[in-house]
Design brief:
Blueprint (H helix, E strand, L loop, with lengths): L2 H25 L8 H20 L2
């Protein structure tokens, strides 16, 4: 696999995981499966990692 393509696929995975964390954050009020602070923290970290992989490299 082309390294550039691989890096972008990993970045997409990190970004989508951040979206998944945001869904947990929004649903935490309804079902409370994940602590809100953990979902917030994880969403921010995931999106920042995705941005770093695409923009800063």
């Amino acid at each position: 696999m082309d390294p550039e393509l691989g890096r972008r696929l990993v970045a997409a995975g990190w970004f989508l995981h951040g979206v998944w964390d945001l869904a947990h954050l929004l649903l935490a009020r309804l079902c409370g499966v994940v602590a809100r602070t953990f979902a917030e923290w994880c969403a921010v970290v995931d999106v920042l990692l995705a941005v770093e992989l695409v923009v800063l490299r």
